[in-house]
Amino acid sequence: MFIKVLLVFLISIFPLAYGEDLTTIKPERVGMSSERLAKIKPHMQRYVDEGKVAGIQTIIARNGKIVHFEQVGTLNLDTGAEMKNDSLFRIASMTKPVATTAAMILFEEGKLLLDDPVEKYLPAFKDKKVLVDGELVDATHPFTIRELMSHTGGLTYGIFGNSPIDQQYREAMFGENNTFNFRSIANNDTPDSQLKTLDDLVATIGPIPLQYQPGTQWVYSLSVDILGAVIEKVSGQPLDTFMEERLFQPLGMKDTFFEVPEDKLNRFGTLHTIDQTGKLMVVDRPGSSDFANNVSFLSAGGGLVSTASDYIRYTQMMLNGGELNGVRILSPTTIDLMTRNQLTYEQQLKYDPRPGIAGTTGFGLGFGLKTEAPKTASGSKGNFRWAGIFGTDFWCDPKENLTAILLMQMIPYPQNVRAEFKNLTYQAIIEMN
């Protein structure tokens, strides 16, 4: 009798936990080759052997099933701890799509509209001026929520350029007028931000003029951090609480957060760069990391820590049209909206002007996307993706029902590794959709 009751209990809980979950299967069952996928690990191992990175982790899923999940190298350069399936990574700007998805939950509930002016929620951005040829002129229109999500609102980042507006951003945020460079990180002499909360960010850059007229250019920017402030105002909750309750818990993302809990620090690795002698060196450690100690600035643009297993739950949900394991986060119509190109053709040419790529790449709401099939690499029209400054990257291919993630902790990261991982993934497909 006890065994019968136990079996009934197990049957009742296992479908919830595993029945439709991202289980691992033989690649051939979903049209991929085990032999070809086996090329990935030794290729990544070479980067470790050559001292270019400490470690790399890769994961691929097709048709909602994991066909590849491997890692090479070291998680913690100080202790020698190896990477494992549950290792935690600073995912940097891979936070942006997740935060944009959180905002679209509020959109679906009618609590905000994409054409709402940002100033409706954040009055610090009222009556914006634009710096044009050294002169301040009125903005043609208040920049909108949609323009925040697509980086076309007139804002900038402050650290990647040296325009007069970039300089004002840096001075306001850091109290110094210095340009961002990787060597300053290697030397541990980057200035500390004076901003402690999203409200501080809004108050700091709100008075600064826009760099360009809203809607006229794509410029990578602090837009999604400002979107995080909008989410807080509209939801009435701190950003981390809203995302935990409305995204992470429903999707079973138990290892995604803005602050690494103390009991999980052993799974959180070191961040690395190359020193002046060409050797790997540590620039951020788990115990002293800004990602692990009383985090108050909840950066919607780059503040999350996550695992491959967690993040692929998010990407698979997006690939599924807003649902995972019977839990619906968004409607398929909203996913379709998020993956529509928001740029004009002229803006696309400037967004990514590289030969063979110019004109085929656009930007949706939170994602870069392919408006045409790539000319210089495998992939499909409709691919959407984003990446992070520490070498993290992901993409979703709706046509091939495939999603893949690359994780490392390196700044600057080897430039070719992302494209090589993508090639290694697509060459393993032996049955196209």
Automatic annotation (TrEMBL):
Residues 43-409 form the Beta-lactamase-related domain. InterPro entries: Beta-lactam-related, Beta-lactam/transpept-like, Diverse_Enzym_Activities. SUPFAM superfamilies: beta-lactamase/transpeptidase-like (SSF56601). One of its GO terms (molecular function) is hydrolase activity. Keywords: Hydrolase. The keyword Isomerase does not apply. It comes from the Bacteria. The keyword Hydrolase applies. Pfam families: Beta-lactamase. Transmembrane segments: none annotated. PANTHER family: BETA-LACTAMASE FAMILY PROTEIN (AFU_ORTHOLOGUE AFUA_5G07500), BETA-LACTAMASE-RELATED. This is Class A beta-lactamase-related serine hydrolase. It comes from SAR92 clade bacterium. The lineage of its organism: Bacteria, Pseudomonadati, Pseudomonadota, Gammaproteobacteria, Cellvibrionales.
